[in-house]
Design brief:
alpha/beta; binds zinc ion
Length: about 90
């Protein structure tokens, strides 16, 4: 599915992390979206966002960001392997 759809939902989730599981997955429609940040060891205010669907294991990937308030922070080991949608798909 369209990367733009994923990006739009990601933007909303980033603004308001607790709202993440209200949105429907752009691929399968399940309300199983997850947004979690893997904290930067050297700069605890930053993290790498991982945004994926717990149902179909599809998602998008970014580099480091400042973490929003209410962010879910996890270790890399807690992130499942998911299929990454690229802007070219
Ligand atoms: Zn899905």
């Amino acid at each position: 599915m369209a990367y733009a759809d994923w990006l739009a939902i990601y933007d909303r989730s980033y603004e308001d992390p607790p709202s993440t599981n209200i949105a429907e997955c752009p691929d399968c429609g399940a309300r199983e979206l997850r947004l979690a940040f893997v904290q930067d060891t050297w700069n605890p205010e930053r993290g790498v966002p991982r945004f994926w669907c717990g149902s179909c294991l599809t998602g998008i990937f970014f580099c480091g960001f400042t973490m929003p308030e209410n962010a879910t922070v996890v270790s890399a080991a807690e992130i499942p392997n998911f299929r990454i949608i690229s802007p070219d798909d």
